[in-house]
Amino acid sequence: MTKVKPPQNLRSGEQALDAIDARILSVLDKDARLPMSELARLVGLSAPSVAERVRRLVSDGVIRAFTVDVDSRALGYQIRAMVRIRPLPGKLHLVEKLIQDTPQFIECDKVTGDDPFLARLVVHSIEEMDDVLEALSDHAVTSTAVIKGASVKRRIPPL
Amino acid sequence: MTKVKPPQNLRSGEQALDAIDARILSVLDKDARLPMSELARLVGLSAPSVAERVRRLVSDGVIRAFTVDVDSRALGYQIRAMVRIRPLPGKLHLVEKLIQDTPQFIECDKVTGDDPFLARLVVHSIEEMDDVLEALSDHAVTSTAVIKGASVKRRIPPL
DNA sequence: GTTGAAAATAGCACGAA
DNA sequence: TTCGTGCTATTTTCAAC
Q1: Do A11 and B128 touch (CB under 8 A)?
Q2: Which chain positions lie within coiled-coil regions (chains A, B) (predicted)?
Q3: Nearest-angstrom CA–CA distance, B105 and B140
Q4: How confident is the model at residue B3 (pLDDT cuts 50, 70, 90)?
Q5: N or C: which end of chain A has fewer CB within 10 A?
């Protein structure tokens, strides 16, 4: 039996992106405020064409939003950490709500495995980190890994 | 001895953001392509004023970039996972390079603790996940937690 | 997808609070 | 300093092709 690469799994009703869409995404990923006129120049199309393509990428859900990359350190949050959170029996939903209501958790995924939550935490100081984690300690066990740096900065998936 | 809340830790030469800057960040976080004129309307200032503030936020490094939030699922990457990666002795840098050279890893933090790397993985299928993880298996031990959903979608830190 | 015109927007200089 | 006004250049949008 020959092993074959599976085809790209596209959601129903979708078209694969062509090379120009890929370039558009790549350029917008670096600077989403680029004027359509210049984006057009970069991808070798007219401005109305790229504007239409961008609109299509948005309505297709490929582009979920145009947003800003905010540097939490520039805001004084000098410590970042990834926190694995394991609620005590019966406390899953309470803990999830606590996480959501703690603004220092700027991201939290629900995952499989021993620890149902994996959250990204930003704090100004070790003391603040302790405050946040202690607030969970009656309801969950946490494992904290301080972020020392990034090997891969957020990037778009291969197109 | 009285315990006091530490002051907000600002980087040297920086000013705290005022309420209007906070609103600007909050609005741009939702739609970074908003015209300055409308952003101005939303925060109650004139267009040149907000444009100047946005420029200042960029040059101060608070806004690192304007970018797009791309939905990996809309691109066919139907499985996301967080992978903890522990290189075998002496293979730290080799493994880091392997991660960087694997485009399905769309993010990777270097963290303290038993597992030096924590990476976000997107794949089209379980088979593709196996391919990616197997490529690491000679040089590292991995622990994979499949993402079932998000409790907290990426948001900006409290201002 | 392209071109060209109209409308909206951004950028700049200057004045006011 | 920080914000507002008026002008000009650029950009976006919509039409027709």
Answers
A1: no
A2: none
A3: 15
A4: very low
A5: N
The answer for B7, left when phi > 0, alpha when psi is -120 to 50, beta otherwise, is: beta
Does the CB of B47 sit below 7 A from strand D? yes
Q: What is the pTM of this model?
A: 0.91
Please answer yes or no on whether A125 and B9 come within 8 Å at the CB atom: yes
With beta carbons less than 8 A apart as the criterion, state whether A120 and A105 touch.
yes
Cα–Cα distance for residue pair B132/B115, rounded to 1 Å: 18
**Nearest residue, CB atoms, A75 vs list B103, B149, B159:** B159
Q: Which residues of A touch B159 (CB under 8 A)?
A: 75
Q: Residue B123: how many CB atoms within 10 A of its CB?
A: 22
Residue that the structure tokens 């004139």 belong to: B46
Cβ-proximal residues to B93 (8 Å cutoff; 6+ apart), any chain: none
Q: Which domains does chain B have, with CATH numbers?
A: 19-60 (1.10.10.10), 73-146 (3.30.70.920)
Chain A positions touching B127 (Cβ under 8 A) are 6
Whether A133 has a pLDDT exceeding 50, the answer reads yes
Alpha helices, H only, chain A: 19-30, 36-43, 47-59, 92-100, 126-136
Question: Rounded mean pLDDT of B42-55?
Answer: 97
* A95 C-beta less than 7 Å away from strand C: no
CA–CA distance, A18 with A13 (Å, rounded to integer): 16
Q: Which residues of B touch A8 (CB under 8 A)?
A: 76, 124
More confident residue, B50 or B3: B50
Question: What per-residue confidence (pLDDT) applies to A16?
Answer: 77
The strand pairing partners of B68, in sequence order, are A66
